[in-house]
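User: Hey, quick favor. My workstation is busy. Could you predict this chain's structure for me?
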Amino acid sequence: MNPLQTDRWIEIDLYWFDHANIAQSCVEFWDRYQPLFFGIEGWKGVIINVGWIMDFVLDWRGDLDALIPLVRNMHLQQFVKDNAPLHGTLATRQQNWKRRFTSHGEVEASYPNWTYRDLGHLIQVLREEAARRGLEDIRVGTMVLGWDGIYEGKLSDWKQRHPHAFIKCEGFFYQVFNVEAILEADPTTYGAFPRGIQQPTPITEFFGKQWGDLSQALGLEAIILRDSMIGPLPYTRRGPYGNSAPADPAIWQRWSQSTADLIRQCKKANPEALVIGYSSAASAVGEWRVNCVDLEAIAHEGYLDAWIDQTWAGAWNEVGVRSDTFWNCQWLGYTYQLTYLLLHAAILAKTKVRHYVLTETFDGWESWDTIHTAPERLRWAIWAYHHAAVLLPKGLKMPAGTYISWGNQAKDLLTPADVYFLAQNLNEAIESAQKTTKVHGPTLVYSRPSMEWMSQHAPHQTIKEWLDEQAGSVMKWSVPIASVARVEDLGELDLDLPILQTPIHLSEICRQLILERIASGKPTAIFASPAGGIDYEIAKAAGLQSQQTFPGGTESLATLHLSPFGADIPSLFPLNHLFSNNLASQAAQILYSVAGSPALILRGNTLVWDPPDWDGLYPPDINWINGVDLSLREHLGSVYPYVLVARALNHLLPNNSLATRPEHIHPEFPVGYVSWQHQDGSRYMLVGQLEEGIPEHTDMDVSLCVQLSSREATQAQSLWLEKAVGIEEGSLMVKLKYAQSDLISINKQR
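Assistant: No problem, here it is.
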């Protein structure tokens, strides 16, 4: 393998290492995982989970021989060795899922006693053993979780002295880190505060300095600020103030500024150590607009070194592998994680922060096991996520590295075959991404000016700015979305089909560029509420306007209008819609309406969508906390709005686009699909059967029929599967069974 300029990290829990034989554990670790790091020339290292919660940093007293305060009496799920995909109807799979976990409950688990000196020794030996094998520059770091407890274990002891350092957020099971907390006086001798805490001391300063002192004492070279450290609520578009930010901008700004100070303090306390952030696993737009953290502003300060997108798609998507509920969170599944990744990529594109993809394996504490349950879907994710491109005037920007999570499940490491699978797919996908010169299909267009105006003037309102959630739903039906751009760069980019996020409050230059594009007849799409989300002149030119300032009130039934896109769609269908009274121009074709208000229209080559919305539609608690069986269909209302948009978008792709256009998109048989081209002219199609519950029987194959020239069709070759592609009536037909994926090459003749 040629050397790859990319970053790579792997995560493992402290409990895996044999406290009584640290040296042998390190030999065993590197015997297994050394192949993942061969030829990797960027930052690379190992992240050790030291008991999850923050006490080992917060309660560091400066004594290397002191016991690390580790969580006691946690509950570890018993891992199921029979984790093959479940087959049959939904009802059959539910029965088999319950049977699978009948004899597998949870067992109590605690860490053995480790001193800080023991941990420092482990860090040193891990590095030395890596260097002995030629891996001279391995970094060893750790992570912290911003919760006061985990897995039903004993709650934070340090919190007992400073209870206001954590706060309760509605709908979440643990209290989360309060970055705004000011600590009261505390006479305890701490590593960075030998004379105790003097009042007032911000929690951000205390944590940062404690981390700096501890990391230098132990030789730690990185910290990952994990769930609820950067944004208090993960896994959902919710935040510290509920389903929206507070009406007073100063309130959310304090939270964001305190988060920035946390990162600043960590970096300044040990400038040689890396500070790495971690996404919420949900909407990148929602992290700012609801979770109250302006990541881009923080990144521009220069203290954040890297950002991990928490792309645990299979952990959320696959069913029958969690003991608590059959339906998990498919709205955090494969296509959604790709669009969350894309929006984060746009947010970070013009900063120095290195943007990482998370590649999942199995879990160190819970029952899911994606690498064995759904390996071909995982393969699709590895390739799709590493080709997630930001389109910049100077060229494409791809993800900078990979975070592999986890490296252990109880005392088991990944098998040699698993390691080979990961190394091969990661290395080949990254090499392909670095050769890519064109990502085909529609491009999401992030509008920071719109988000900034809303955050400053109406933070508690919505204009349906959730572009990543919307696109993640639409692309399930074979819309090849794998690229993103920023609205201020539109004039310097040649886009097949931009999908504009809420084009309002733009600079005059941006506004005119969009108006000129619409007037020229170039394909354009707008996802936004006409009530407050589209500039007046742009809305007029596009053909959908509203007199309302913001949407309000909900509707749950849509009416299909006559169009070429309505095959297999009922005349009435349910949806979750935040309502505004819209007016379509006479020249516009209405595709569907809600309560008499046009919601999806096509005027010439411009598509405008007033999307369904998830705002306020989550269950009172995140569904998997209370075991709520909520399917993706129920979450969306129905699939039909998204199918209509997908068909219209593929219709709008220009004839000279190198993106292949599906000939028919069936509502019940979605196929995930992205496409790109290398500098030598070779083209690639990545396809996957990714969805649980759509279709509802695993025996139903899915297919994607795309238009290619006869020459291209004969050149098409499946790289992963036998007989996955064929030629039918001059078109390329791709057929996939349940949970399959395929990479298809189309080599352009010189």
